[in-house]
Write a structure and sequence with these properties.
Helix content: 25-40%
Strand order of the largest sheet: 1-2-3-4
Strand content: 15-25%
Distance between the termini: 18 Å
Order of helices and strands: EEEEHEEHHEH
Largest sheet: 4 strands, mixed
Shape: globular
Radius of gyration: 17 Å
Structural class: alpha/beta
Oligomer: single chain
Number of helices: 4
């Protein structure tokens, strides 16, 4: 179901040229990057999957802070790792994405944090945009050090959101 906006809070436009071997820039010039395919390690470049991961991680972190505040908790120290995987599918399109969000919050056990992740998933605009379209895994971890170790392959069997 498509949900229309009732009021616009922000709008931006990015312009791409040359596809995965070109560039992308925003109207205001705050983002202006060269692109290279994910498998090519070209210095000074990024790729669409990295840009998507960065935006999703930042958006989800803000959603988590908003949800935590509703419970009187401070989530400003939360760390969110967003792993985006590009792969092939058995669909006519042939390609797809899978996303895994791994979250830690100092002083919180994973079991206590997991319900907040599901609440943040419900309010995060990126999570809403991908809901029902790509697999999304939400994983809370106890220790921030675990965050860097758990952002490997993201191909889950199915969408594990509640």
């Amino acid at each position: 179901m498509t949900v229309p906006l009732t009021r616009s809070l922000y709008r931006t436009t990015a312009h791409a040229a040359g596809g995965r071997t070109g560039s992308v820039r925003t109207d205001d010039g705050r983002l202006d990057v060269r692109l290279a395919p994910p498998r090519k390690k070209v210095p000074g470049t990024t790729n669409p999957e990295q840009l998507f991961a960065a935006g999703f991680a930042a958006c989800f972190t803000s959603a988590l802070a908003e949800v935590a505040a509703e419970f009187g908790a401070d989530a400003s120290a939360a760390r969110v790792a967003c792993a985006v995987e590009l792969g092939t599918t058995d669909t006519p399109a042939g390609y797809g994405l899978a996303v895994s969000l791994t979250v830690s919050l100092p002083g919180w056990r994973a079991a206590d944090l997991q319900p907040l992740l599901h609440r943040a998933d419900a309010v995060c605009p990126y999570a809403q945009a991908v809901r029902g379209n790509i697999p999304l895994t939400l994983l809370a971890v106890d220790d921030q050090d675990d965050l860097d170790d758990r952002t490997g392959p993201t191909t889950p069997a199915a969408d594990d959101r509640a």
